[in-house]
User: What shape does this take?
Amino acid sequence: MSGRLSILIAEDSAADRMLLSTIVSRQGHRVLTASNGLEAVALFEQERPQLVLMDALMPVMDGFEASRRIKESAGEQLVPIIFLTSLTENEALVRCLEVGDDFLAKPYNQIILQAKISAMDRLRRLQQVVLQQRDLIAKHNEHLLTEQRVAKAVFDKVAHSGCLSAANIRYLQSPFALFNGDLLLAAFKPSGGMHVLLGDFTGHGLPAAIGAMPLAEVFYGMTAKGFSMAEILREMNAKLKRILPVGVFCCATMLNLSFQRRVVEVWNGGLPDGHLLRVASGERVPLVSRHLPLGVLEPTAFNEAYEVHPLLPGDRIFLLSDGVLETHGASGQLFGEERLLEVFAAGHSPERLFDEIQAALAAFRGEAQDDISMIELSMVEDGLLARPALAFSDSGQSSPLDWSVSFEFRAEALKRFNPLPFLLQLLMEVRGLRAQGGALYTVMAELYSNALEHGVLGLDSRLKSDAQGFARYYRERGQRLQALSEGFVRFSLDVVPEAGGGGCLRIRVEDSGKGFDVARALDRPQDKECLSGRGMRLIRQLTHHCQWSPDGRGAQVEFRWPA
Amino acid sequence: MAITAMPSGDGQELTIHIQGRFDFSAHQEFRDAYERVSTTPKRYVVDLKGATYLDSSALGMLLLLRDHAGGDHARISLVNCNPDVRKILSISNFEQLFQIG
Assistant: This one.
């Protein structure tokens, strides 16, 4: 038995009205009565009864019109209307059900009337529950969207603290890509150059977004401190493995783009092929996934081996998330790799490719793209990109000004430890050097790689005269480093204050290699398009003084700063 | 989506058959397939013959199975992969973790 309802009875016959009122109030309900349709509508609007018993044929306004108005006034609420009728033709009864919810034939049967009131009340309550739940869902959804907006704003501060707006980058990313698990990061390295990462976490929503924050922190933090791509990858993998549940991981491609050395290092774990397009030859080099995604392997099993490709100004690199290949067409088929390769093969000029890929996707899909991420990077001449000064979180007041220190890194250390971030952190304590931080990073990196590669490992830079030799050079570098059992690189740093306020840093680097013919190396003509031999020239340009020891086993450079 | 698990006669091996799209919607069913068995199999076979599609969530589920089956000591083979499925497995380099046939 349902609870007490407020029921409106609209009936023009006073006798019937009386009879019905008695039956209904005896059943425990509150009764309102009207003697025609117009009265019924007015009473409904005033009293808002929960159920209506409506005579079909009445003077002034009939039951059908009155029902329409009551339904309209009730809006989303279900106010069940039971027609009271002596009509018997099918057509009239169908009409009752079109406007109302049920009908009861005259003369009235008390028991049936009671049963119908109960049934209609159940329906009314059901509708109420549905409406409540709908509103609740809408509220939750609104709440969720607000949370996502806040989370995204916080995340954007972290993720976009980088250089996605640099002149050599174009990218496409949905504003809510984060909640598709897509992640796009780019940052200048202190030594020039650029680190770029396109990541795609498993799944969607919050679980996919949650790993993005620590990944971005590691990426930006370590890049700013001068760590190498391999070290950053290793750290990102270890961190994700530690914090993410099994089964959640991040497919990613990371690039280390060096404008000075004109190379790109590529590590791809689980993303579709990236594409390197050589502008001169039109050749397309696929950047293939060779690794498990980040966050799958234990740190000890992780493999950070990367590929190195030489680049010339104008060469382009495209990275895409699998959302691009999995874009659905109207009839359900996937965009797929072949369609993408057709766009590459169509012979568009390189600077139009990004637009052409976008156009091909739009044509294929026929609507806006909201779950794809794509980035295009161009190789540009070194020094063309405006980049911000290095940022420091401390005030630099504790600047130490009169000291020297010397480090020797031997075989076992050279194999697995990159001393540069460590040395550079130390030097950045000197406030006067901070303004030239970028140049200092570059010079240190060049000095170290010269000492390690040409000195300790005995690699000949002339190997890098073409693309194949280039690949061989880096393969050889990896093998020789792995097999290294003796040798050293020694850094001596000497910081001295100068009269009047400024100071001077002297860096001396020595290695255990065989040395080289300094005079000949410096005389070698610098071919603009040559893939090697930029290092020494750079060092000369960026330091106040530089000098190679005559036996080619060491170099000394100076940085000065004013008061 | 239909996932069925079939232990071998000696209970040493459990074969999990996947039908249709293997994606996030299969999450619970796939877990049940290896968690709700009375035997303790030494080897697992995931038969992808009927799998038309596989997404990154499915890769995650395979990693969960691997974890359940002993992590680095797990013996799991993925068999009857169609070319699309094989491609997805190979992009993620899952052959380093699973035997793929």
